[in-house]
């Protein structure tokens, strides 16, 4: 049986020993496809941040848990369709995948309905890949301003999914510079295979799944 708590503590120790910038990044335990029974050890250990990428799965797993553990912070890290926003806003605390004006407008409407503001990352298509969602670098300033000033969204940072099979460090450093230029403090970048590179490049939220829970079935 895989020891999930030990896996988390191992990652935390590695970060403490290898990261020399101010503070350690938050670890989002990406629990997608894993049953809540496998997640309880981390909850009972006191872990705060959890990530899901499918809305229906998150509703089934987390609705009751969040009533009992109100301190838990739930992160929507997958692509979000506008017709699912009405389910995401009441349950989640963060959205990492804001990738269009249409989605931003829908989030704004649904937040007003329940009087709740989520913390939101703008997803950047940092590799300019046709198959990936995200705002282009040259549109970021206009998009960010629209989200904050017109839609009153709480934009806290930027998120990226760098191209696969490439050196991610260069992309992470580009993201760090973009965030600084946009005067945003948070960066959501880095997963199980590249979290150390991301942390060294200034990531404040790491999205780690298999290194904690093991490979998905």
Could you describe the 3D structure shown?
The structure is a single chain. This protein has 217 residues and is α/β, with parallel strands linked by helices. It has one domain (4-213): TIM Barrel, CATH 3.20.20.10. 44% of the residues lie in helices and 18% in strands. It has 9 helices and 8 strands. It has an 8-stranded parallel beta sheet.
Number of helices: 9
What sort of overall outline do the alpha carbons produce when their principal axes are compared? globular
Tell me the name of the CATH class.
Alpha Beta
Structural class assignment: alpha/beta
Largest sheet: 8 strands, parallel
- The helix/strand series, from N terminus to C terminus, equals HEHEHEHEHEHEHEHEH
Q: What is the mean predicted local confidence, pLDDT?
A: 93
Strand order of the largest sheet: 7-6-5-4-3-2-1-8
CATH topology label: TIM Barrel
The radius of gyration is: 17 Å
CATH architecture: Alpha-Beta Barrel
The low-confidence parts are: none
Number of strands: 8
Q: How many discrete domains?
A: 1
Portion of residues within helices: 40-55%
Terminal Cα span: 14 Å
Oligomer: single chain
Fold blueprint:
Elements: H1 4-18, E1 26-30, H2 36-45, E2 49-52, H3 55-68, E3 73-76, H4 85-91, E4 94-98, H5 101-114, E5 119-124, H6 140-150, E6 154-160, H7 168-181, E7 186-188, H8 195-200, E8 205-208, H9 210-213
Parallel strand pairs: 1-2, 1-8, 2-3, 3-4, 4-5, 5-6, 6-7
Helix pairs in contact: 4-5
């Amino acid at each position: 049986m895989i020891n999930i708590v030990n896996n988390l503590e191992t990652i935390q120790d590695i970060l403490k020993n290898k990261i020399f910038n101010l503070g350690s990044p938050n670890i989002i335990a990406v629990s997608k496809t894993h049953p809540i029974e496998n997640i309880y050890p981390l909850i009972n250990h006191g872990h705060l941040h959890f990530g899901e990428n499918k809305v229906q799965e998150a509703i089934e797993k987390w609705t009751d848990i969040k009533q009992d553990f109100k301190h838990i912070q739930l992160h929507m890290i997958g692509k979000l369709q506008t017709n699912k926003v009405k389910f995401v806003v009441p349950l989640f605390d963060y959205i990492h995948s804001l990738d269009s004006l249409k989605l931003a407008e829908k989030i704004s409407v649904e937040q007003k309905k329940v009087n709740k503001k989520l913390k939101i990352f703008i997803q950047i298509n940092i590799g300019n890949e046709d198959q990936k969602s995200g705002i282009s670098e040259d549109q970021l300033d206009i998009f960010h301003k629209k989200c904050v000033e017109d839609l009153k969204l709480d934009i806290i940072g930027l998120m990226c999914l760098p191209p696969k099979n490439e050196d991610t460090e260069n992309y992470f450093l580009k993201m760090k510079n973009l965030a600084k230029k946009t005067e945003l403090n948070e960066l959501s970048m880095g997963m199980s295979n590249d979290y150390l590179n991301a942390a060294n490049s200034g990531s404040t939220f790491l999205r780690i799944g298999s290194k904690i829970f093991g490979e998905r079935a």
